[in-house]
Amino acid sequence: MKTLEDLSGYDKAAIIFDILGDSLSINMFKDIPEAEFYKLRDHAKHLRNDVPTSVKKEVLEDYYFKMLSNEKYKDQTSSEKMFDFLEGLDDEQLYSLLSPEKPRVIALALEQIDNEKRMNFLSKVDVEKQNKIV
Question: Which residues are in the Flagellar motor switch protein FliG N-terminal domain (predicted)?
């Protein structure tokens, strides 16, 4: 079982690739050569079952916080753009990312996305958790 410390930068890129899926990854990794893109995709498939979900979540959080600290985001307040990346996720990706979170965190994130995505997410959650979120 791998931990965050066991992962190389390439492993982390592959995990982010896997989380985002092909369509979003194409835009994110557009600056790398096509052959390298396919190698990264294959590596992501290889790591899929070797890395626990909790570690994948840590990788995504680490990437997100590094992205926020990037120079181009310093002009904006973090509260303005904190959850913008959620808009680019499809319903399954959004559910995979948010479902393990506490209801308060889910509620905060859902407040930042459009109503259709919010309703799709809530329809997948059991009634008890829905009540806590709402």
Answer: 7-93
